């Protein structure tokens, strides 16, 4: 197998360069002379995450598709800590990204199963009050394309970037309390009544009817206009005026053929 470098990272003070190779080895190099100092052995699959410690020049973190996360002392070429991302009933989860906290006491990782892993020193009590399952209610909603090949949300017929901020729900689509809804950008200062989603019953592909978030109570239209950029505010005001004069049905007809499923597009 021809060796290929999959990832490269400098340490905190730039004295060392660490490279990840597709033969599952990590190599530590002297950045001034180019001399190979250490081969770091431990990974069983390709490594695509190399993260240096924010202030300790000895420490480097590596993670990969084998589910292993290593903390290395690259000056000695030794493992300091090891964590294996085992998921009960599903085998291991490939680790896609890792980042240290600014104080270097914790690091967060994301894996192929949608988990956020937080590891480090201290007590986990602050995290115990956070729901284990946090999804946006729009995460798995289908998209369609209109006659101009623009992407639209199938349910609301809106462009995704023009939709209101989503709600936080669990894996079954049940919305979380309002205190968690304020964690969503764009909902930080909303009144409680704007943080309560509208629930309805939706038929799934296999015919089962489930309760799901199907609509949202959002800010008043005037408040939404004030939060947009000047150009988008003008467009939104024109759209509102058109709706008031002609009604929604006439508006759709004026911007496309009768069978077009979409909203007006800006030029």
Automatic annotation (TrEMBL):
Pfam families cross-referenced by the UniProt entry: WD40
Renumbered ranges of WD repeats: 1-39, 40-82
Sequence segments annotated as region (Disordered): 242-267
SUPFAM superfamilies cross-referenced by the UniProt entry: WD40 repeat-like
A single GO BP: cytoskeleton organization
Keywords, in A-Z order: Repeat, WD repeat
InterPro entries linked to this entry: Bromo_WD_repeat, WD40/YVTN_repeat-like_dom_sf, WD40_repeat_CS, WD40_repeat_dom_sf, WD40_rpt
GO cellular component: nucleus
Coiled-coil region: none
The name this protein goes by in its record: BRWD1 protein
Species annotation: Chloroceryle aenea
Gene name in the database record: Brwd1_0
